């Protein structure tokens, strides 16, 4: 089972790199071939900039997506453990349990169950924090390096007649598009991971509704943190290209 898990994880990682490095270029070139769309002033500058960014930074965006996925899945598991502990404790204390229970609760003391769920929550919190820090560091490093690289392009656009406001608007739109892609990719990965998590937590007698609740809360928490990190790193980027 673990061998299948690692094979599946490797294939997911390779597929993610393929989508961000090659798939994004294919889509952008297809949009560029649409002359009516491409030759509009804002779309022309945005698509040209996006092609340049994705060619140079597709792998970096894939890294953000994968770290974000690991953060989301870990956070989902942690919240499910927190929400499901009371559910399992109630099941343990019920005198009239019906059906077959995957976990043999009759031979587990409440104290042992509390320690078990507490350990799982601690591990989830630890690894979730580590993955989140990796995501933040990759995003920050990407903004710093791109800020230094794009400064010359920022000055060139001003020299050819674009106003500072239009240049800022174009750069802001490109950066927003670039950083929304890893978030959407991480959410898509979580959608495919949730059925597996439901089967996993079923062994611990945690209902699918609790897993879905944990996944929903994880999405809200991660999206909020991701947006905060994006806004903070975007300010650094704008300072670098505009100074």
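-> sequence recovered:
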């Amino acid at each position: 089972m673990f061998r299948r898990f690692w094979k599946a994880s490797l294939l997911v990682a390779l597929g993610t790199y393929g989508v961000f490095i090659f798939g994004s270029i294919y889509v952008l070139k297809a949009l560029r071939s649409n002359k009516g769309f491409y030759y509009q002033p804002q779309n022309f500058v945005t698509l040209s900039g996006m092609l340049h960014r994705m060619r140079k930074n597709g792998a970096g965006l894939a890294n953000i997506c994968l770290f974000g996925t690991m953060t989301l899945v870990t956070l989902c598991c942690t919240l499910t453990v927190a929400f499901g502990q009371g559910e399992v404790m109630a099941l343990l204390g019920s005198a009239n349990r019906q059906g077959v229970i995957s976990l043999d609760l009759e031979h587990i003391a409440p104290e042992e169950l509390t320690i078990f769920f507490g350990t799982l929550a601690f591990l989830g919190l630890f690894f979730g924090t580590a993955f989140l820090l990796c995501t933040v560091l990759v995003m920050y490093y990407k903004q710093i390096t791109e800020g230094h690289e794009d400064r010359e392009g920022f000055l060139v656009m001003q020299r050819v007649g674009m106003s500072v406001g239009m240049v800022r608007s174009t750069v802001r739109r490109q950066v927003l598009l670039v950083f929304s892609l890893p978030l959407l990719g991480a959410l898509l990965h979580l959608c495919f991971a949730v059925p597996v998590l439901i089967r996993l937590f079923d062994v611990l007698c945690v209902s699918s509704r609790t897993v879905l609740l944990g996944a929903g809360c994880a999405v809200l928490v991660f999206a909020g943190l991701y947006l905060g990190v994006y806004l903070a790193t975007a300010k650094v980027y704008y300072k670098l290209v505009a100074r």
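Helices lie at 2-33, 35-38, 41-93, 110-159, 164-202, 208-242.
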